[in-house]
Amino acid sequence: MTNEQTHKVHLSPEDQERLRELRTQKPARNLPKLALTPGAMLADRVAETVGSWCFIIIQSVLLGIWIMLNMIAFIRHWDPFPFILLNLVLSFQAAYAAPIIMMSQNRQSEI
């Protein structure tokens, strides 16, 4: 047992009654359902997708294919080293993904 568990807390009768009321209500489990706007639903969906291992693995495979095709291309390199077009594509993705994910996180923190 830790020290926190061995200390007894003495509550007033009013506090004990309020504690009993809160335990019966289970407020953490009875959160009101919020009506989500289409933007909030989209932000949650994007954050859920971009924040998954599936997305990271698929994106890593696609990046690897892009780089390999440009390194071994015999006829025409559409994005030769140092892969400026790939950098532009990833910057574009990050420019949109980051604010959308932040919208979802801000809404979650409000809840």
From TrEMBL:
Q: Which domain of life is it from?
A: Bacteria
User: Which Pfam families does this UniProt record tie to the protein?
Assistant: DUF1003
Q: Which InterPro entries does this one have?
A: DUF1003
Q: Where are the transmembrane segments?
A: 50-75, 81-102
| Key words of the record | Membrane, Transmembrane, Transmembrane helix
Q: Does the record carry Zinc as a key word?
A: no
List the PANTHER family.
Answer: INTEGRAL MEMBRANE PROTEIN-RELATED (PTHR41386), MEMBRANE PROTEIN (PTHR41386:SF1)
Q: What is this protein called?
A: Membrane protein
Species this chain originates from: Bradyrhizobium elkanii
> What is the phylogenetic placement of the source species in the record?
Bacteria, Pseudomonadati, Pseudomonadota, Alphaproteobacteria, Hyphomicrobiales
